[in-house]
Design a protein that fits this description.
Elements: H1 2-36, H2 42-62, H3 66-74, H4 78-87, H5 93-99, H6 102-110, H7 114-121, H8 126-132, H9 138-147, H10 150-161, H11 167-170, E1 177-179, H12 184-193, E2 203-207, E3 213-218, H13 219-224, H14 231-234, H15 248-258, E4 262-266, E5 272-277, H16 278-296, H17 309-336, H18 338-343, H19 346-374, H20 383-413, H21 416-446, H22 455-479
Parallel strand pairs: 1-2
Antiparallel strand pairs: 2-3, 4-5
Helix pairs in contact: 1-2, 3-5, 7-9, 8-10, 15-16, 17-22, 19-20, 19-21, 19-22, 20-21, 21-22
Length: 480
């Protein structure tokens, strides 16, 4: 059911994007035709046509959710993107900037002047503004801070003070608090006076006069309990809470483990300072997964697919340079055994199999370990056990798949020694892949580096060069 809903949502997004593209194309086509005409009223006709099509496009955008508009902006080339961006209502600029990717956000902000940026930032809450602040010019941030009320100004400064990837950087300040000595009837009256509840409000936070967290009042309990009871009688006194300095990864695991919708965030004195919601956690997980996938491929950062050529070059060149060096090394390894390959041409056909299987095995190992590190499941004292386990898996895979490939090599080339060399080379390269697959994330994590960055590039380099050397070396020793 969830898969069907997701598929329908994607189809709706694509349909909205197609409609916007059609309107843009129609606008550009008519504009081009009018521009070719030589008429005294050409300018007037051109303005009327522009207004008609742009008004239709603006009406379409106004009915879309901010996230859908962000998807459309990310899917358009820069020129079309800026046309659409200019049509978005000014009071929605801020929320759309929060939804788009970092790379696209840069292009949108670059097209806005200071007044537009300040106006967009002023529509956001303090926690949302803190997310946007790193991408805004310093003078814009200062103007926004001066325009905020004192309480929101302090909230913004607090949110900006927390490190990226911490709970404090993700938490929000919009929440509902109550006292434990008031009745549920009073709480109900209070809630009814609110225009609306903050998003993802599944519980109210119970505090004392010093603003210390005493517990939580789930809305489910509020609904079914006698209104004459006091909050303290029905609240959950011992509740799960987070600290602003806690890692976002740990918070995400807690939300998944305990099926949380929201959680209070308290300081060292147990004073309630904010809350973390499942929406923020899901966004963080999605962004972290995207960053990990990019890092494994050797990309420095998320890239706008329509970015200028030079920007894309700068984002990709470093690990491509590493790949070039490793590919050259692999070619030189093959060059060392040119004589062997000339004498036994079958080696040229078989050696890519050994290298390819080793690369896949190493990437499997690294992916599993990087995930375990991200989830906090891999402690220092367990690296040795993990190392032995991966070696055992590599030897078993080498026996099974190396043996199978050895039999195939024997059948294809009618050579038992060649089949035996194939089996042994496969096993040794899988062992090498296991060693490297554990060593790369271990070394990077030990020195405080992201274990995912460039891992697939390094694994492939080691298993290619190593696989070629092992296979060709064994063939030279035993077959020639």
């Amino acid at each position: 059911m969830a898969e069907l809903a997701n598929r329908l949502e994607i189809e709706d997004l694509k349909e909205n994007l197609h409609e916007v593209q059609v309107l843009l194309h129609r606008h550009q086509l008519v504009e081009s035709l009018v521009a070719r005409q030589d008429s005294p009223r050409q300018e007037l006709v051109e303005q009327l046509v522009q207004k008609q099509h742009l008004a239709e496009l603006r009406a379409k955008l106004d009915h879309l959710h901010a996230a859908d508009v962000a998807f459309i902006l990310e899917s358009l080339p820069l020129d079309d993107r800026l046309v659409v961006w200019d049509l978005v209502k000014a009071d929605r600029d801020g929320e759309i900037l929060l939804e788009v990717s970092d790379a696209v956000r840069e292009s949108l902000i670059a097209s806005m002047d200071t007044e537009e940026l300040v106006a967009a930032a002023e529509t956001l809450e303090a926690d949302e503004l803190a997310d946007l602040a790193p991408d805004l010019p310093e003078d814009v941030i200062q103007d926004v801070i001066r325009s905020l009320p004192l309480e929101e100004r302090e909230q913004l400064r607090a949110a900006m003070s927390y490190a990226e990837g911490s709970v404090g950087a993700l938490m929000e300040f919009d929440m509902v608090t109550v006292r434990e000595d008031v009745t549920l009837e009073a709480v109900t009256r209070y809630l009814r006076r609110l225009d609306e509840l903050p998003d993802h409000t599944d519980q109210l936070f119970v505090i004392d006069r010093a603003h210390k967290l005493k517990g939580t009042l789930p809305l489910a309990r509020l609904i079914v309990s006698d209104l004459e009871f006091e909050v303290g009688a029905v609240m959950v006194p011992q509740t799960f809470s987070l600290g602003p300095e806690d890692r976002a990864e740990d918070a995400a695991q807690a939300f998944e483990r305990y099926d949380l919708v929201s959680a209070p965030v308290v300081d060292a004195d147990d004073k309630l300072i904010g809350r973390l919601t499942v929406s923020a956690v899901v966004d963080y997980i999605r962004e972290s997964s995207a960053e990990q996938a990019l890092a494994e491929a050797g990309l420095a950062e998320e890239e706008d697919i329509f970015a200028p050529v030079w920007d894309s070059f700068r984002n990709r060149w470093s690990w491509l340079a590493v790949n070039l060096v490793t590919a050259f090394i692999a070619s030189r390894v093959i060059g060392l055994f040119e004589g062997s390959i000339e004498k036994l041409v079958a080696l040229a056909a078989l050696m890519p199999i050994v290298a390819g299987i080793g690369g896949n095995s190493g990437n499997q190992t690294t992916t599993m370990i990087v995930r375990a590190i991200a989830l906090g499941q891999l402690q220092t004292q367990y690296w040795r056990k993990l190392f032995i386990k991966e070696l055992s898996v590599a030897i078993l895979n080498g026996l099974v798949w190396g043996g199978l490939l050895g039999i195939l090599a024997w059948m294809l080339y009618d050579s038992v020694p060649l089949g035996a060399v194939m089996t042994l080379a496969m096993m040794l390269n899988l062992v090498l892949a296991a060693l490297v697959g554990v060593a790369i994330p271990y070394v990077r994590a030990k020195f405080g580096r992201d274990p995912a960055v460039g891992s697939s590039v390094l694994i492939t380099a080691c298993t290619d060069s190593g696989g070629f050397f092992i296979f060709l070396g064994l063939a030279t020793l035993f077959l020639l």
